[in-house]
Amino acid sequence: MARAGDKAMALLASSAEAAQEAERLLRRRYDFVEPEEAEMVLALGGDGFLLQTLHEMLASDRLCPVFGMNLGTVGFLMNEWQIDGLVERLAAAKPFSVAPLEMRAHRINGEQIVHPAINEVSLLRETRQTAWIEISINDRIVVPQLVCDGVLVATPAGSTAYNYSAHGPILPLNSKLVALTPISPFRPRRWRGALMPEDIKVSFRVLDPDKRPVSAVADQLEVRDIDRVEVCVDRGRALTLLFDPEHALDERISMEQFAF
């Protein structure tokens, strides 16, 4: 059986052809348990599939360490695909704790939707008109009116994704910070975002939701026509990712600052 120490492992694979073939090869060599019996999970695919796996864990409230192997495109959050030495790799893997964000989105019609985000929560304009958004930190208004395409809150694990594309900072994994980053800001011109401690609450209020509608996105989940959103870090549901020591996530995130 595929184990790291005395922990039973489940095997999950994306629908991509390469991941499906890798799953067949691994099942011929190792024994795996069903996901509901697992103490660890081996995920085959890309970053998107890993995020999907983590979200399914959060939805079921059954959190297990995850060791991902890259059979996708970028694979930033994944380890190298190898069929040999799996048990030894699992035993030597380095764990990293990743705390998700909690998004609480309030729609114009009064509906409230709560959803986790591992990378970021972003607010985005729905039409050609810019969004007008008020930003508060711990219920104190810090930006009365941000005129922009959008704004996002990113975790350290997600700081190299959409946040980085929006010219936000890369955060060390152990920094206990979140990045607050505007997306194509027009006013105020000189504001380029902020670094905030992870124990704060960030609140957004859409100033003209009827004329200038805004959607909120927690990783892949989109909630349209919102009028306000609260975002905080949910330390109570921290996830554990496992990495080969030579490809540890903290070093990978730090080195992204020197990528061209």
The amount of beta strand, in percent, is: 35-45%
Kindly report the average pLDDT value: 93
End-to-end Cα distance:
42 Å
- The share of residues in helices is 10-25%
So what's the overall shape? elongated
Task: Write down the secondary-structure element order.
Answer: EEHEHEHEEEEEEEHEEEEEEEH
How many DSSP-defined strands? 18
> How would you characterize the largest beta sheet?
6 strands, mixed
* Secondary-structure-derived class: alpha+beta
Main β-sheet, spatial strand arrangement: 1-2-3-4-18-5
Stretches where pLDDT is under 50 for at least 5 consecutive residues are: none
Q: Give the radius of gyration.
A: 20 Å
Number of helices: 5
Structure in words:
By secondary structure, the chain is of the alpha+beta class. Helix content is 17%, strand content 39%. It is built from 5 helices and 18 strands. It is elongated, with a radius of gyration of 20 Å.
Topology:
Elements: E1 3-4, E2 7-13, H1 17-29, E3 40-45, H2 47-60, E4 66-70, H3 86-92, E5 94-98, E6 101-107, E7 112-117, E8 120-125, E9 131-137, E10 140-148, E11 150-154, H4 162-165, E12 177-183, E13 194-197, E14 202-206, E15 214-218, E16 221-223, E17 226-233, E18 239-243, H5 249-255
Parallel strand pairs: 2-3, 3-4, 4-18
Antiparallel strand pairs: 1-2, 5-18, 6-7, 6-17, 8-11, 8-15, 9-10, 9-14, 11-12, 12-13, 14-17, 15-16
